[in-house]
Recover the amino acids of this structure.
DNA sequence: TGTAATGGATAAATCGATTTTTCGCTGTTG
DNA sequence: CAACAGCGAAAAATCGATTTATCCATTACA
């Protein structure tokens, strides 16, 4: 109620200083918690701060330091639950440490990814959490390296020779999926994915294949991948089914693939798990309310975010040493979309009231 | 290849100035496009910029101006497709204008919302796009008002006496849903929602009710709302069904409600649209691949984002005048989850191979 | 020829903090 | 009593840009 200035200009440190009858330097020290200030002066500073409603301008405050209290986050997209949660977590963790998070979406484009990174470099961010579009060997990581930026790579990475990496343990999770599917008696399994994300997808694929073959050397594993977008994947899948292939289970290595698989199933009038079983990498809220509920690999978002921030701040504070590559364990949620083969009519629809096509 | 400094310190405007043999002021003018500079000097500046790889430090650049080239965005959450797309759009639009977007999630908390806003005020952001947790009358909007901040309110708002507002035309969309449901012959409809978001939810509810009653005065419309979270809504819904209520259609006023409805349906072994029809406000990618596909109201995210940014920048550039309240038209996607009542067995499951409970 | 107007560029002030240097004062010591 | 150490606080430099004030040459005009 003792406000004297209009809503236009905010009080600066000098306003506080003159109100408290001290210098700006003293105000700065008091607020920074320096103890070599006479208690009565400190009190007058606190009073003035209170009276004026003074708050430090983070922009001005950051001017004089080389590493600013800003963390950049670059995600391939914001539309999925995974990256949405990731940004939420990262933002909270940055805030806890008094940092501001600036997040941007590369929209699955490596070109844009690098542009964003360059802009963050302009801001002299203290560090970057980068979830690369492709993998750890893209132009963005190279840019960071070339410019001596500190950062952590997450999600679509395995390990790097310059940056700490944190990602879900895709291989282990895929192996578990394999155990479960083989355990249910599946002997012909189709794996679908996008090959672009190289390292990660390969890890998932190999983790799955190795475990499946170890448990049942006679298992048949088909693989369909597409290079760029999901549409080619969709048509490949359609062709695959059209030429009579009838796997008893599908394991999708990514969320969009799960959606494609589901829509192709419904196009053919197949139901899970009687006609075919389905497991997808990446969980989503809707998967537990659909009928049937979709089995999925749940990525440990909080752990990845938390570990990434820990590693990042360690580097920001000057830690040296070889980069670490962390793999956080996933959880496999078996739901109704997975069953044993042959327990239901394995044919093209007809026994349902739903129309096979929309 | 002509880099001379290590990856540590970046060149400043003074480095460029000395390389070009001019003053820093001249460099600044050249880069700002001022024409009163001798062409040859301008050229030397450009050459030096090129040679050193100089880029303006946005933080330092913003120091001297009252309104900084930063836009704040506050969303209730990042996990849903709607807000994910919204942030992506807003970020792109801000970037187009040379602004940096700082986004934060209020995590559905008005307290946090205000804290974030205060922090953005500390940054002296030029403007804020606020999607309030509750409605336009919350503490965050009051804070903006009290501090003379410029901003736009979106999504869970209708109109405000201080800020421009942009939201989906919920009422019109709901009226269209009513037309479609009544048109299909539904005469007992349940509407579910969260009452917290007052204005918006009320608009949706009233838009629906008015149109439904206009078309069929004898229609029975039940309403279940919950104040705070979705769990009370779930149990209310469960009670409602448990005491024998059998509406022929459910209209959910929000995405989470759609999920709750779906999970309660499957709990009881009901299938859409034979046992019950379902329409939800807010579309999601998965809704078109499930079986049945879920009918939904699609919000015009791009238009809302674009209009919000237009209005915001108009204000940032000093436009005065009474606030405008925009309503962007939605699209209603009728999908298989909606049918005519009585066209299928209306009872508790038993005719399916899926177990009713997970 | 003297003075005013003008073009083009530099020096200096500014933004709001932090950090380093300097300074004044008190109390101790040789 | 002079020199010195120590403490607090003020003054000044700094961060990297932008903007204003200033200045030096020309050129124009009386």
């Amino acid at each position: 109620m003792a406000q004297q200035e209009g809503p236009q200009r905010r009080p600066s440190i000098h306003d506080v200083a003159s109100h408290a009858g001290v210098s700006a330097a003293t105000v700065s020290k008091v607020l920074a918690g320096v103890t070599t200030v006479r208690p009565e002066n400190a009190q007058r500073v606190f009073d003035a701060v209170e009276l004026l409603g003074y708050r430090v301008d983070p922009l001005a405050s950051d001017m004089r330091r080389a590493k600013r209290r800003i963390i950049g986050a670059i995600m391939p997209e914001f539309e999925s639950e995974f990256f949405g949660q990731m940004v939420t977590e990262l933002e909270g963790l940055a805030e806890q440490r008094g940092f501001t998070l600036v997040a941007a979406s590369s929209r699955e484009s490596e070109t844009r990814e690098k542009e964003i990174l360059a802009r963050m470099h302009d801001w002299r961010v203290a560090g970057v959490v980068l979830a690369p579009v492709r993998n750890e060997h893209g132009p963005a990581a190279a840019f960071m390296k070339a410019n001596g930026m500190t950062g952590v790579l997450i999600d679509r990475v395995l390990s790097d020779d310059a940056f700490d990496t944190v990602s879900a343990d895709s291989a282990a999770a895929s192996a578990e999926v394999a155990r479960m599917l083989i355990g249910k008696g599946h002997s012909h399994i189709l794996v679908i994915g996008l090959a672009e994300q190289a390292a990660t997808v390969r890890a998932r694929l190999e983790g799955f294949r190795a475990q499946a073959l170890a448990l049942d050397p006679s298992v048949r594993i088909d693989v369909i991948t597409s290079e760029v977008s999901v549409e080619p994947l969709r048509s490949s899948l359609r062709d695959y089914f059209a030429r009579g292939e009838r796997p008893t289970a599908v394991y999708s290595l990514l969320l969009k693939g799960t959606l494609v698989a589901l829509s192709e199933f419904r196009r053919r009038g197949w139901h899970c798990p009687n006609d075919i079983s389905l497991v997808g990498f990446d969980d989503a809220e809707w998967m537990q309310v659909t009928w049937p509920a979709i089995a999925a690999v749940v990525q440990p978002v909080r752990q990845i975010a938390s570990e990434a921030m820990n590693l990042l701040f360690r580097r920001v504070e000057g830690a040296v040493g070889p980069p670490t590559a962390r793999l956080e364990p996933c959880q496999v949620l078996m739901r109704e979309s997975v069953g044993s083969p042959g327990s239901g009519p394995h044919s093209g629809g007809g026994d349902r009231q739903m129309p096979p096509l929309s």
